[in-house]
Automatic annotation (TrEMBL), chains A, B:
<dbReference type="Pfam" id="PF01546">
    <property type="entry name" value="Peptidase_M20"/>
</dbReference>
<dbReference type="GO" id="GO:0006508">
    <property type="term" value="P:proteolysis"/>
</dbReference>
<dbReference type="InterPro" id="IPR002933">
    <property type="entry name" value="Peptidase_M20"/>
</dbReference>
<keyword id="KW-0645">Protease</keyword>
<protein>
    <submittedName>
        <fullName>Dipeptidase</fullName>
    </submittedName>
</protein>
<feature type="domain" description="Peptidase M20 dimerisation">
    <location>
        <begin position="199"/>
        <end position="357"/>
    </location>
</feature>
<keyword id="KW-0479">Metal-binding</keyword>
<dbReference type="GO" id="GO:0008233">
    <property type="term" value="F:peptidase activity"/>
</dbReference>
<dbReference type="InterPro" id="IPR051458">
    <property type="entry name" value="Cyt/Met_Dipeptidase"/>
</dbReference>
<dbReference type="Pfam" id="PF07687">
    <property type="entry name" value="M20_dimer"/>
</dbReference>
<dbReference type="GO" id="GO:0046872">
    <property type="term" value="F:metal ion binding"/>
</dbReference>
<keyword id="KW-0378">Hydrolase</keyword>
<dbReference type="InterPro" id="IPR011650">
    <property type="entry name" value="Peptidase_M20_dimer"/>
</dbReference>
Length: 462, 462
């Protein structure tokens, strides 16, 4: 119970209805059929900020979808917090796998959400989570005001790689100047175990093509005498891991920073059942780099995964063909201080080097993203740990996520501020998948926690 | 010049027109839209046999398309030859790649066919080649009769795996009884280099599936901690060849019969340019089992090729997914005395054995085929070598083909007779591909050669 609890309790119904209303707008940024809805969502968000008490609210246009801005400057001498989030959502397909229409939010109980969860595209990622900040802001404004300066930057292109956010940030450094960036677009370890994401992995993504003969060949007449591009590709990919499941690309690990024992111990204290993990995925065994736990393999260690592979005849029945070429999409998750551009180059050099003379090899880079980490000694982290511990009544733990939010490095570079990832979602919330949902309790825990974070952070900065 | 040459020369136009007429019938056995045409072709073939002088000609029905039978028994004490061929053809698609309509035969000159080649589906495989036997039969009948007994068995399902030929042969052992089977459904080494195919490879074809997690996973959140089915599949496939490009499946080579030095020397004398071979396929280097030549690798040695592979995201752009499963089609070409069923079982056992505990593996067998070989000491082979040498004025060489004609083993088992593969096609005739063609010269060389084979064979059997 905090000084904000009664206000939140008194406005529970409305705060929930407002979110459901926002979820009814299919603001799918990846599909141009929905661009009108994306613009509509931006307008609705701006209106909510105004009503909540923000000043200078604007729907700032960019070469893509607009960025919604708003602020409350109470005292230039006080610290300034920039709240970042996004109002756009992932496409809903495969639509047929949804048990209820993705843009007609309904509340259903689940094992992990006995108080009910909101089922809708964007419920957790990120409408439900950024809207907590709008409601928390309203709550503070209605209960003595914000303890420090607040700025909002809610974009509409996160699900398509924040294509124009960099463009916007570079042109608005002054307006966006801040001491810290607060984001709720990640998850917690468990429903009752608060945690703060201290690191995200970077990404290097390449497409490879191995070409053999200049045309498909009859496997009877040529089999055994010419290199089969599919066989060669499998050999090349297989050689990218050694017997300890370490990546063999030369120089791959050179810049990997060791993680402090303190943080590894913190991670080890996180409640985690390997049995349940395997059971949930129907695996008889896990896999990974020798010398690291499953949690560490999925967060603080770099990886190399084939995301797609194709070549030859993939229809029904049997066709005796030797394909002219085979292709694969390969991504590497990176950790501090690996540089995506450098890793991509190392991969290209290595992959071309291991190609036998019987084939030609082509490596095409896709977008990348830098790894990101915020130390547990950052005042914003300490504020988050304190705030979450109060509302959950349990110590908040640091946690590394295996995912990537490439834009964070840009924020740090352009605004000189670190990002605090205080998320309230769960891995099981099915973001990017059918039946995405977000716990009603998580939503309100967020609205309760955020004002406490502002208070704690302001204290930390005194 | 033989005693048949003037007759053939005198009827050249008609013999060519009759073939073109047959080629106009789209007897595509794989596509039910054409079944009427397949039956029509059978009737036309029967009519030609009758006109040529065959007795007891019938269009014998089977559970599938009919088998055309005809015979000329001149003396029970003389040897009997069974001529086998097929009147059905491959589908014409991709139709758009044909430079002229596949069922409107036209004669065009090519570099390899300066006298002109017949462009049409089935021109070489096998209408053009089996019809040579009908015309050669007519020629013999018009010039003193056949030197021994002849039987014709022309089927209509070869391009769909001779589904019902076994059924027909088992029910007509008496009628089909013979001393040797003569077939023109293969090729020669070169336009001026006659050769006789002494061996064909067998086939074992399997489909494999490697399953990891029970659903597609986010490669950021799970990457590095769970086995990626695509990575695992590539490792398993890569391990199927060792550093000498020998197949590692346990017991795979146990039953491989050594090829006689005499035959290997014969093969080595075949005109073959590795440079031209590489140039034609745009390869900087060939590949294959250590210790064998390219020709040997493609004919007398067993192989393992991936014919198709697929898994994960294969669309445009980048998707960071870990697929739930990955699949591949893998075929093995077999040589005497490897048994397809046994090899398939050896593969299944081996593949399941090398699968790591972090995945599940499924191996599904497709159809197989037995390898086949006819020794160069067989009277039918000697007759072919003698006949071809006369018409081509050059010694005919033995040659192994890497392809498979599974039905030959059935003939040997059911009729106790070996098959002589005296083909007149060229690798470049594009059978099964767009713009299939057959040299006009090859067609008439066949009609000239076949009667000489009958004389030589009858002599051999005295």
């Amino acid at each position: 119970m905090s000084k904000y609890s009664s206000y939140i309790a008194g406005n529970k119904e409305r705060m929930l209805d407002e979110l459901l209303e926002l979820l009814r707008i299919p603001s799918v940024s990846a599909d141009s059929d929905y661009s009108e809805d994306v613009h509509k969502a931006a307008g609705v968000v701006a209106e909510h900020l105004r009503k909540a008490g923000a000043d200078n609210v604007e729907v700032a246009s960019t070469p893509g979808f607009p960025v919604v801005y708003g602020e409350k400057i109470v005292d230039p001498k006080l610290p300034t917090v920039l709240v970042y989030g996004h109002y756009d959502v992932q496409p809903a397909d495969p639509i047929e796998l949804w048990t209820s229409p993705p843009f007609e939010p309904i509340i259903k109980k689940t094992d992990l959400h006995p108080e009910g969860a909101i089922f809708a595209r964007g419920a957790c990622d990120d409408k439900g989570q950024f809207f907590m900040h709008v409601k928390a802001f309203e709550t503070m404004m209605q209960n003595g005001g914000v303890p420090c300066n607040v700025k909002f930057m809610i974009e509409g292109e996160e699900e398509v790689g924040s294509a124009n956010l960099g463009w916007f940030v570079e042109r608005n450094r002054e307006k966006l100047s801040c001491d810290v960036i607060l984001i709720s677009d990640t998850g917690m370890i468990g429903p009752d175990q608060p945690s703060i994401t201290t690191g995200l992995r970077g990404l290097s993504y390449v497409e490879v093509k191995v070409t053999g003969p200049n045309r498909d060949l009859h496997s009877g007449l040529y089999g055994g005498a010419v290199a089969n591009p599919i066989n060669i590709l499998t050999q090349m990919i297989a050689s990218l891991h050694d017997e300890h499941n370490r990546i063999t690309v030369e120089g791959f690990y050179d810049k990997v920073l060791p993680v402090s024992d303190e943080e590894r111990e913190g991670m080890a204290r996180a409640p985690f059942s390997l049995e349940e993990y395997k059971k949930a995925l129907d695996l008889s065994d896990v896999w990974g780099e020798e010398g690291y736990s499953t949690i560490e393999r999925a967060s603080i260690r770099p990886t190399l995964d084939v995301n797609g592979i194709w070549g030859g005849y993939i229809g029904k029945g049997a066709k005796t063909v030797i394909a002219s070429y085979a292709e694969a999409k390969i991504s590497m998750r990176l950790v501090p201080d690996q540089d995506p551009a450098e890793i991509t180059q190392l991969f290209k050099t290595h992959f071309e080097k291991i190609a036998p003379s019987s084939v030609k090899v082509q490596v095409t880079p896709h977008h990348g993203g830098e790894p990101y980490v915020t130390g547990i000694d950052h005042p914003g982290y300490r504020a988050a740990a304190s705030a979450m511990s109060q509302t959950f009544g349990k110590e908040a733990l640091p946690m590394r996520s295996g995912g990537s939010i490439p834009i964070l490095s840009l924020f740090e570079r352009e605004l000189g501020a670190k990002s605090i990832l205080m998320g309230f979602g769960l891995d099981s919330d099915a973001i990017h998948s059918p039946n995405e949902h977000y716990g009603v309790k998580n939503y309100f825990m967020g609205i309760e926690t955020i004002p406490l974070w502002f208070e704690a952070y302001t204290e930390e900065m005194k």
